[in-house]
Amino acid sequence: MAQFFSQLSVAFDWRSIIDIAVVAVVLYQLLMLIKGTRAVQLLKGIIVLLILSNSAKFLQLTTMSWMLDKLWQMLFIALPVVFQPELRRALEQIGRGRFFIRHPQGLGPEALSQVTEELVRCTQVLSKNRIGALMALERETGVQNYVETGIKIDGVVSSEFLVNVFIPNTPLHDGAVIIRGDRVAAAGCFLPLSENMNIQKELGTRHRAAIGLTEVSDALVIIVSEETGAISVALDGVLSRFLDEKALREILSRELQVNTTKSSVPFVSFWRS
Q1: What was the pLDDT predicted at 134?
Q2: Beta-strand (E) ranges in 133-175?
């Protein structure tokens, strides 16, 4: 036993400990970096392919192994292109000295309840005054790429603040507000427009942008129509329109959960393709 601990102490000297600690910190920072982007889903797909490749080789599935090997060769070329925004963002943060930073933790039930009430109050004021608005709530899939298209705010979510942002003819009223946790991450952001040809023609750019973002992420987007004052919510590429205060509160309370599985309650759609 003494010889074992002696060999172990030789194998793990202070240099090895420092080496392991640095690698662990770097890997953690990289994971937190891609957590704010769609690269998380891409990484999950790569892990699934890796498992399939190893399983095919272990079971000696020759044809499957050959196909997966060819797929890996294509991915080796495609990955730098697919991850180009994340790679650029990582290099920018390293250059700015912001790579080793603390990352915010998830919100508790009380904070989420407060955010929900502030959003409900805000949308009611905007709806009554027929002020157009577009508010995207980031969930598990990060939307940092779209946050960077707007003006960074980093302010606490409050109904008064959000109403002032969307007042017509103000600098930030045009574009979307992106909310991360209980903070307004940015305003005046550009969201991707949906290319779905089955969307009703009466829906304008705000609704198409809301649907577009939810098609490429799991974000929840609240829309207030400038023409009618109608309140809508986009989720998973589906638009729910003409929501009252109670219906909006129920959707937000159901969807904005921390460390829980997605609710099995169906998302009622008033827009169908």
Answers
A1: 96
A2: 133-138, 151-156
The CA distance from 160 to 183, in Å, is 14
| Phi/psi of residue 189, nearest 5 degrees | -85, 150
Cα(58)–Cα(36) distance, integer angstroms? 35
pTM of the model: 0.65
Q: Domains (ranges, CATH) in the chain?
A: 2-96 (no CATH), 109-255 (3.40.1700.10)
Under DSSP, is residue 109 helix (H, G, I), strand (E, B) or coil? helix
Query: What pLDDT sits at residue 90?
Result: 59
Residue pair 68/52 in contact by the 8 Å Cβ criterion: yes
DSSP 33-84: HHHTSTHHHHHHHHHHHHHHHHHHHHTT-HHHHHHHHHHHHHHHHHHHHHTH
Residues 6+ apart with CB under 8 A from 54: none
| Residue type (1 letter), 112 | L
Residue 102 has pLDDT above 50, yes or no: no
Phi, psi (5° rounding) for residue 136? -105, 130
